[in-house]
Amino acid sequence: MNEVKITTKDGVKIAVNHYKKEGDSVIILAPGWFMTKDSKSFKAMSEVFFKYSSVLVMDFRGHGKSGGFYTFTSKEVNDLNAVIEFAQQKYKKIYLMGFSLGAAIVLIAGADNDKISKIIAVSAPTCFEKIENEMWRKEAWLPTLQKCELNRWFSIRPSVKIGEKIKPIDIVEKIKCPTLFLAGEKDPTVYSWHTETLFKKAECAKKYELFKNCTHAEDLFIQDREKFVEICTGWLFSE
Question: In whole angstroms, what is the distance from residue 186 CA to residue 140 CA?
Fold first, then answer.
């Protein structure tokens, strides 16, 4: 694995872990708010999917080793687009897999790029303003405590200026490539109705899968790894 720095069109340095494998495909992993490429869950996920394909896992701006400040989807599509452009120089098949706000960003980027082969959106919100985020519930704070990594937490830098956001619900119909929508039945942060609503509105080849007794975003991988990997690899690598 090599770490590379990629510059966005607005001048932010984005840190990416590049797992190189023979072949013409790459999976770009886009974590959500408060998660980084070097967190335990995304390191483990990268290593699992590296068995099937090259992997690029990124730190969005304001996270980990990337520069800038996080804007909660206002500017982060610039980060993902920079990584996509980097991937297109090396691979023919570009797969996007986003989690929570990372899933929102993946959908936004995919709606404006006809070079993406397939998308997986995990716990994607219809729009930022409607995220429930009931952090007092056990289903929310317990997984957060279980994933406690102080180095990651201290690396997060939110912006004090939040600009206008594109709503996934407004652009999902524009996506042309096959898209898999995944949600957790007990998600306390982005209720499953968000992802199901996006699935229903999408006009591309699509599939929706609800994970019973699972919560939010990367927790689907943590809580039901075998099913998560089976569904995702089946979606990406079946014709």
Answer: 9
Q: How far apart are CA 217 and CA 39, in angstroms?
A: 14
- How many Å apart are CA 153 and CA 225, to the nearest integer? 24
Q: Which residues contact 99 (CB under 8 A, 6 or more apart)?
A: 29, 30, 31, 32, 35, 122, 123, 217, 218
Mapping DSSP to helix (H, G, I), strand (E, B) and coil, where does residue 221 land? helix
3-state secondary structure of 189: coil
Rounded (5°) CA angle 99-42-49: 90
Of the candidate CATH numbers 3.30.360.10, 3.40.50.1820, 3.40.50.300, 3.40.30.10, the domain formed by 2-237 belongs to 3.40.50.1820
User: pLDDT truncated to tens, each residue of the chain (239 aa)?
Assistant: 999 999 999 999 999 999 999 999 999 999 999 999 999 999 999 999 999 999 999 999 999 999 999 999 999 999 999 999 999 999 999 999 999 999 999 999 999 999 999 999 999 999 998 887 765 566 665 566 566 676 876 889 999 887 899 999 999 999 999 999 999 999 999 999 999 999 999 999 999 999 999 999 999 999 999 999 999 999 999 87
